Structures are given as C-alpha cells and as structure tokens.
TrEMBL record:
Residues 289-315 are annotated as: Disordered. The keyword Transmembrane helix applies. The keyword Transmembrane applies. This is Rhodopsin domain-containing protein. InterPro entries: Rhodopsin_dom_fungi (IPR049326). Keywords: Membrane, Transmembrane, Transmembrane helix. It comes from Cercophora scortea. Residues 37-270 form the Rhodopsin domain. The chain crosses the membrane at residues 15-41, 53-74, 94-118, 130-149, 169-192, 204-231, 243-266.
C-alpha cells in the first residue's frame, strides 16, 4: 500500500497533459491574435502567413503524440508499467519529435519572410537566404535522424533496440542549430531596426519586442541541459519518469517560439515599424512630400504598408 501511494504521488502524467494543452492553446491564441491584428489593419494576408497555421498543425500533432505517451506512462515510475505501456510511451515520444522540429522550422521560415519584407537591403536578403538554407538542412537531417534513430524494424525503441544513435549527441546538434538560427534572427532584427529613422523610445520598444526571441534560446538551453542530465544509464532505467520534464520543456519551447513570432503584429509596433520603414526608404524630404510626389507622378494614390511584410506602393 505504501509503495502504491508513493507511486501515485510521483505520477505526473496528468500534469503533463494539462500543461501540454495549455501551451498549445497559448500558441493558438498568439497566432489568431497576430494574424487577426494584421488583417484588421492591412486587410490582407500574404502567403507566408499560412506558415503559422501549418506550424500550429504540426504542434497539434506533437501534442497528441505527447498525450498518448502520457497515457502510456510518461511521468510514472517505469517499474509500475507493463512492457506494452513502455512501448506505447516510446512510440508516442518517437512520433512527437518530427512534428516538434517541423513546427519550429515553419516558425523560423515565417520569420525569415517577415525579415525579408522589413528590409530592402540585398545583404539582408542574402543573409535570409543563407538562414533558410541552414533551416532546411537542419529540418531534413534532424527529422530523418529521429525517424531512423534505431535499426529497423523497431526504429522507435531506443531502450531495447539495436544499433541506436547517441541520443545526447543528436539532441545537442538539434538544439545547437536551433539556438544558432535564433541568434541570427535576433541579429538581423537588431540590424534592421537600428537603421530605422524613428525616436529612441519607439526603437527601444521595437528592440524589446524583437529581443523576446531570446526567450526561445533560453528555453532551448534549459531543455537541453535538463535532457542531458535526464538520460539514464543504462537507457532502460526509468525512462518514463526521467524524461517527463525535458519533454514538457519542449512544449514550452514551441509555445514561446510561436507566441514571440506573433508579437511584432501588435498595433503600436506596426505603427512604429511602418513609420520607420517609410522614412528609411525615403531619398530625401518628408514622408508627406514623398507621398505627394508619387501621387503627382502617377495621378493615383499611394499605399505604403510596412506590415506583414508588404511595402506596397500602388501608383
């Protein structure tokens, strides 16, 4: 009876499921709020806006896989579980990883499109192309490695399978590239915002919002550190209890990544960006003079929208 009570007290499966779905709901609210704000203010959405719902779809699939892993014993003492339950946990975790990586990659790609729209600089566009190349290679290699982490037919069973990869080294690679690409994104943001001709207060506000991508870096570092210490030796020692926290931290990484990618669409920031981007592209004179000049030459109207990435001048 005492053993059963102690085991029940250590059961974290319900908490894992609750937090997992709270994180997903937070991601949904972030995307809906960001895209909704953008549409209300610009009356248009671009192709890259569709990447965020796709990232949510991948995140949803990941959450379902984690819920299945939790229902099969994630967060419980492995000694209290049947072999079928442990196998179910391994399959759930196995299924979640490709969707985790895909979700993060889609968010990064959406941000790269936004950065392209922010700056007309060819140097920035070249940097974005290089960033995208790294993201594509990282996504392909990380997902393929996760799918074939052990020799067939039991590719998911790193606890009992034969010829499995070093999971610590593999996850260090996944996390390191994730961190590196986020740092590049932050540097590009700061470089572009630094060139905007806006007040110091507005510039500080913009830099504060864009620097929230640093939270993704912090969450990824924390997850890697916990994961590194949680991998038992040998690999069959209480996996279900040891890995609950690193798996939960992955949900937090995804949520933070999605939400911080949507923050730039807040209306005050949109107004600051639009004003600054217009001025940054003026060859001289005021914004009003620039608009009048365009209108005079074309006999039409000028619509300059910095958001969502579109500097559109309809003449």
């Amino acid at each position: 009876m005492a053993v059963e009570t102690q085991s029940a007290a250590r059961d974290k499966s319900t908490i894992i499921q609750i937090i997992t779905w709270i994180m997903f709901i937070g991601s949904v609210l972030g995307v809906v709020g960001g895209m909704g704000t953008k549409y209300v203010l610009t009356r248009q959405l671009s192709w890259d806006d569709g990447l965020m719902p796709l990232a949510l779809a991948a995140s949803l699939a990941q959450c379902i896989a984690i819920s299945l892993a939790a229902s099969n014993g994630l967060g419980k003492d492995q000694s209290t579980l049947s072999s079928d339950a442990v196998d179910g946990f391994l399959k759930g975790e196995y299924a979640s990883i490709p969707f985790l990586i895909l979700s993060l990659a889609l968010v990064k790609w959406s941000i790269s499109a936004f950065i392209n729209y922010l700056s007309p600089s060819s140097r920035h566009h070249q940097a974005v192309m290089a960033l995208r190349g790294v993201i594509v290679l990282w996504t392909i290699t990380a997902i393929l490695t996760s799918l074939f982490q052990c020799a067939p037919p039991r590719t998911w069973d790193y606890a009992h399978g034969l010829h499995c990869i070093d999971r610590r080294a593999w996850w260090a690679y996944v996390s390191a590239v994730n961190i590196l690409t986020e740092l590049v994104i932050i540097v590009l943001y700061f470089t572009i915002i630094g060139n905007l001709q806006i007040s110091r207060m507005k510039k500080a506000n913009l830099l504060t919002i864009f620097s929230t991508r640093g939270l993704v870096v912090a969450a990824t570092v924390a997850q890697l550190a916990v994961f590194w210490g949680a991998i038992p030796s040998p690999a069959t020692d209480n996996l279900t209890d040891n890995l609950w926290l690193p798996i939960l931290l992955n949900q937090i990484v995804v949520c933070v990544s999605v939400v911080t990618a949507c923050l730039p669409y807040l209306k005050p920031l949109m107004d600051s960006l639009e004003s600054g981007l217009v001025r940054a592209n003026l060859p001289g004179g005021s914004e009003e003079e620039f608009s009048q000049e365009l209108s005079h030459r074309s006999g039409g109207s000028t619509n300059i929208s910095a958001y969502g990435g579109h500097h559109q001048r309809s003449y």
